[in-house]
Each structure stands twice: as C-alpha cells, then as structure tokens.
Amino acid sequence: MKGNPTSYKEKLEKKRMQETKIFTLIAVIAGTAIGIFFLFYALSYQPLPREEAVAFSGQLARYKESQSSKYGGRLYFGDDSQFELENAYQTKELTEALQSLVPGTTLYLLIDPELNCVIEIRTESRELLNLDEAQQAILSERRDFILIAILLFACDILLLVITLLERKAKRDNKAAKQQRKKKKAEELGESPVLRYANPDVRHRVLLDARAESYQICYRRVGIVNELIVNGRVYAEKKGFLEFEHTLFAVVDGHKIEAGTDDLSCSFISFDGRLLDYKQRII
C-alpha cells in the first residue's frame, strides 16, 4: 500500500475499536431502554379494589376468540358495547364456558378502566371469572417482565465486562507476542531455505515489499501460505482456511515476518519495522 503502513494499521485498529465501542454503546443503551420499559410496564399495574372497578351489565350478543398476543377474546353485547379479555387469565375452561353461553344471556361485568379489560364475569346463576383470580393472573404475568428487565440489565453489564476484558486481553496478547518474537529472534540463528519459489506455479501474491537488498513476498499457493525472500521460501503455513498467523525467518541476521493479523490484514515487517500492511478482501 502507499503511504505509511504503520499509520494505516493504527488507523484501522482505531477504526475497529471505535466500531466496537459504538456497537457496545448502542447495544447497552437499547438493552437498558427496553429493560426500563419492561420494568415500568410490570410495576405500573396495581390490582383494583372492587369498588373502583366499573360495573357493566348487558345481554350477550356473541363471544369471539382473539389472535392478539395481549387479548384472549372479546365480548359483544346487544347495545354495541364490546369488552376485551386479557390473555393472562384466559383459560380453556373460561373459553369453553363463554362459547357455551346462549345469545341474550345477561352478563354482569367488572371492568378495569386503566387496562380497559374485563376482570370479572358473572351470569344470573354462576361466576365465570373471579375478580381476585383475574387480577392475580395479570399481576403474575406482569412480574415475568421484571425478570426480563433484570436479564436485560445483566446482559448489559456482561457485555460491558466482556468488552473491557477483550480490550485488556488484546493488549496483553500484543505484548506477549512482541515478547515471544523477541525471544525467538534471539534464540534462532539463520533460517534454513525450504526450497526455491517456483514463479510458474499458480499463486496469489498477498503482499510484497522491499527492504535494503531483500525482496520479500508473502503469497498463497493452493492451500499454502509462503514467506519468500529473494526467491527462496523460508517459512510456510498450510490450511484450507486462513486464520491469524505469522511466518518468521532470520536472513543474514535480519528478522523478517509476514502473515495475517487479528484484523484480517496482511503484513510484512523487517527487523520490527512494518513495511507494508493491507486489508484482506478474501
């Protein structure tokens, strides 16, 4: 690439870090907002005393089941009034009882004005839906949203912790890599030549660069990645898939490296100095 490869790498790392920060921030804000909404939704419901409920009586025209996620059915009356039944207390027994009612049956209802739904149903002779049981079922369902809110808050905290730990791990890993490279360079002598690079074989040059009198090429031949210096292959890595790796060679006392980093970028370095750095497309 043209320009300073070290500067390009730093900019790319900074860009990736900023993208991670933005994603984490959006995820945490969204999770917190949804959690607060669920928490408010759960805590906003309070069961009504019987005397505060709105009473209604009328002749049933028909009952219709609902496919809504909130309401289980709807009662229609002869005066065109209609009232919803919450899913929270909608049982099979209640549904069957309402379906068995003859049109014209007089029903006595109690309505929650805040929820605008039925919380008690009686006929002349029996109780189909009890006020306390209905409200307890609604309250129990709302409490489930408290657990969802707590789970979302916990996920937000976990995401923040993981992000911080990942950043620390990357810094520690980078420092450890540098230390290993330094130690390896000190321990190794001249790298042996594996073979001469065949220029006629089908290959793909991932990156090439020149330093002093050394022409360095990092290429892929079939499933093999090669580090070539002045036409000689000094290191290789085989694999159908390419993951983060570093090919290493010591030539005339110079430490030469090429490979793919954790940002999926190819690089070539000479004595610790980055010669070229490029984002990989494939």
What's this, in brief?
The chain has 282 residues and is an alpha+beta fold. It has helices at residues 5-43, 92-99, 131-187; strands spanning 54-65, 71-77, 82-86, 106-112, 117-122, 127-129, 195-196, 204-211, 214-221, 224-229, 232-238, 245-251, 254-260, 265-270, 273-279. Strand 2 (71-77) and strand 3 form a beta hairpin.
Q: Please give the number of β-strands.
A: 15
Output mean pLDDT.
87
Share of β-strand residues = 25-35%
Tell me the domain tally.
3
Supply Rg. 35 Å
Across the major sheet, the strand order is 3-2-1-4-5-6
User: How far is it from the N-terminal to the C-terminal residue, by CA?
Assistant: 17 Å
**Helix/strand-derived class?**
alpha+beta
Sheet having the most strands: 6 strands, antiparallel
* Unreliable spans: none
Task: Choose one word for the global shape.
Answer: rod-shaped
The residue fraction in helices comes out at: 25-40%
- The H-and-E topology, N to C, reads as HEEEHEEEHEEEEEEEEE
Total helices: the number is 3
